[in-house]
Write a structure and sequence with these properties.
Layout lengths: L1 H13 L5 H12 L4 H9 L4 H34 L20 H15 L3 E2 L5 E3 H4 L19 E3 L4 E3 L4 H10 L4 E10 L11 E11 L4 H16 L5 E8 L2 E10 L16 E10 L1 H6 L8 E8 H9 L12 H4 L7
Parallel strand pairs: 1-5
Antiparallel strand pairs: 2-4, 3-4, 5-6, 6-10, 7-8, 8-9, 9-10
Helix pairs in contact: 1-4, 2-4, 3-4, 5-10
Bound molecules: zinc ion (ZN).
The site of zinc ion has 8 residues, from loops.
């Protein structure tokens, strides 16, 4: 029996394990109620009295050796798990993957920096608006058909609370609170109840500019537009103005720029015309000045507004507006090199 115990101690000291399961199997084999050591203790009852002292000590040594081995193995496996051993801590770390700016942010920042050079400061306001700031103060009388130009998302009716349909609502808040003269750009998200397609979405981004001071004329507007177009699309860019209608400007115009692709010769993008429609603009309607408590005899102003999606599509040759909102990394990562 003593020989068997010594043999087991040798076996135990040579044992090694790679997984917790192997350690558990080892424990069951040796230290469970019906394990090898328990059976030896059972046999110990039959050992002659003169051998009991030696064999008893050897049995206790065997049990201690098995328990110590299990504890050691568990500790080793735990260390391997936490990387404290077997891991080269001197290896360089995994590189952090840098994100890229969204194309709409790239173009918005570019537009804002052009207006910054002209002395316009940025103003932002709430996306949820009351009827006064979104419509009435901008010369949209109630029941006026011009309200149908913008399909509106209503949050509450009577009194009406809406998701603002243009950032002009922010300009109304600026006219209320700012000292004259006013020279502001208002970037923001706007909402219109339109069917989603490659060319339209119910959410889009706008930048509007507003300049109110004494003696602001249409010539100032045209010069601002010319400078803006050349800065954004290149020094060879031409502009043209076509008469239009907006409730809050009089006279109103839409501005085209010479096609960025064919430079006026005519191509698919400009549908053969050589011109691309970019923005709406005009002189602030005296009614709007009056509605907002500004002396319309003393002050005049101009306003202009554009959709950032449209300009981004033209600048980067993007054909489907929906790509801007899908968060597809294969699309977004293409703009990583553009700042
Ligand atoms: Zn063209």
């Amino acid at each position: 029996m003593l020989d068997k115990i010594k043999q087991l101690i040798a076996e135990i000291s040579g044992f090694s394990a790679q997984t917790p399961e192997e350690v558990e199997q080892f424990r069951i084999k040796h230290l469970s109620k019906k394990g090898i050591i328990a059976l030896l203790f059972e046999d110990f009852k039959n050992v002659p009295v003169e051998q009991k002292k030696d064999i008893g000590k050897a049995l206790n040594d065997l049990k201690t050796a098995a328990q110590t081995k299990i504890n050691d193995l568990k500790e080793q496996l735990c260390d391997a798990d936490s990387g404290a051993s077997g891991t080269d801590l001197m290896l360089p770390g995994d590189p952090l993957k840098l994100g890229s700016r969204h194309p709409l942010s790239i173009v918005r920042n570019e537009i804002l920096s052009i207006f910054d050079k002209l002395g316009f400061t940025i103003s932002e306001g709430p996306e949820i608006e009351d009827d006064w700031h979104n419509f009435s103060a901008l010369n949209f009388p109630e029941e006026h058909p011009a309200r149908d130009m913008q399909d509106t998302f209503f949050i509450e009716k009577h009194p009406d609370i809406v998701l603002h349909t243009h950032t002009s609502s922010v300009q109304v808040r600026d006219m209320e609170t700012h000292q004259l003269p006013i020279r502001l750009v208002t970037p923001g998200r706007v909402f219109r109840n339109e069917a989603i397609s490659a060319r339209a979405h119910c959410i889009f981004h706008q930048i509007e500019a507003l300049y109110i001071d004494e003696n602001v004329s249409f010539a100032d507007l045209k010069q601002t537009l010319t400078y803006f177009a050349k800065e954004l699309f290149g020094p060879d860019t031409q502009i043209r103005l076509r008469p239009s209608y907006f409730p809050f400007t009089e006279p109103s115009a839409e501005m085209d720029v010479s096609c960025t692709l064919c430079h006026g010769k005519g191509c698919n993008v400009c549908k053969g015309t050589g011109w691309l429609e970019i923005l709406g603009c005009g002189m602030v309607d005296p009614n709007v000045l009056e509605l907002n408590g500004i002396d319309k005899e003393k002050y005049t102003g101009f306003a202009l507004g554009m959709g950032i999606e449209r300009i981004t599509m033209l600048k980067f040759g993007i054909k489907d507006l929906r790509l801007f909102f899908e968060n597809d990394l294969r699309f977004l990562e293409q703009f990583a090199a553009v700042v």
